[in-house]
Amino acid sequence: MTLTEPAVRHTDRARAVLHRVATDERRHRQRQRALVWLGTAVLGIALLLFWQFGLGLLVNPRYVSDPATVLARIGELLAGGELLAHLSVTLGEAGAGFLIGVVAGLVSAVALTSSRRGYEVFEPFLVAFYSIPKIALAPLFILWFGLGTTPKIVMAALLVYFIVLVNTATGLRGVQPGLFRVCRVFGASRRDLLVKVTLPAAVPAVVASIRITFTRAIEGAVLSEFVASTQGLGYLVARASRAFDIATVFAGIVVIAAVVMVANGLLRALESRLLPWHGGRVHG
């Protein structure tokens, strides 16, 4: 069956319209991306200028180091190998705590939401425990687990666990009950409901929470290193602070911030590729 000439012209016009719309949408996304990069660059330059010329007006200049000095100090630490050694320790602790917290949070969320009232029973205790300042727990973990990497991993896992738990449980409980009833009518088992309905519905919240919790894992590891440690970026900053080595203090802070920004950017790019329709709203 061949198309008539009017039908062919109509099809060509439709294709042209679709091509034009797709091109306009692609150009719009590129413009928006360029604006975001431009805004980020302008803000970064403004912060550097404020750091260079304005921060000393707000605090004692003796306790402020300028960006050039900090950059030179980072170069010295890199050349001596000290910075990479401390960075590898912190990333190892944060990575282990991150994996433990994600797995524990996912398993706990599935277990608590498998019963109708399970999560509601535990929620007040979860909220109460999450409200405890984590800096108050760090000395206890060090007393319980020693000065090695274990208390840092536990602290990192703890910060990750609650965010993953709450967001996964919210996603799991957000499925409409009517959808479950329809699936049961068509013969879906409990396993089918979990694997094919509940978990896919929770994926956006899970992925978004995983993205932000890696930064929390680094925060937990560094926080424990501040309290008591012999290695890691937190130890580097705390040691320099006690010695009034302001350049090293700022160097450690800059490196921690840079690691968090890079990790967050990589995870955000992964999230955008896996879930381009999701806005990434999370609790915690």
Structure characterization notes:
By secondary structure, the chain is an all-alpha fold. The protein folds into 2 domains: 1-62; 65-274, MetI-like fold, CATH 1.10.3720.10. It is built from 10 helices and no strands. The protein has helices spanning 5-58, 67-80, 82-113, 118-130, 134-145, 150-173, 177-185, 190-227, 233-242, 246-274. The longest helix is centred in the N-terminal third of the chain and has 54 residues, at 5-58. It is flat. The termini are far apart.
Labels describing this entry:
83% helix, MetI-like fold, 2 domains, 284 residues, MetI-like, transmembrane helix
Task: List strands and helices in order, with pairings.
Blueprint: H1 5-58, H2 67-80, H3 82-113, H4 118-130, H5 134-145, H6 150-173, H7 177-185, H8 190-227, H9 233-242, H10 246-274
Helix pairs in contact: 2-10, 3-6, 3-8, 3-9, 5-6, 5-8, 6-8, 8-9, 8-10, 9-10
Describe the structure in brief:
With 284 residues, this protein is an all-alpha fold.
Tertiary shape = flat
CATH topology group of the largest domain: MetI-like fold
> How many distinct helices?
10
> Mind telling me the CATH superfamily name of the largest domain?
MetI-like
| Total domain modules | 2
> Share of helix among residues?
over 70%
Membrane topology: Multi-pass membrane protein
Keywords: Cell membrane, Membrane, Transmembrane, Transmembrane helix, Transport
Organism: Actinophytocola xanthii
Protein name: ABC transmembrane type-1 domain-containing protein
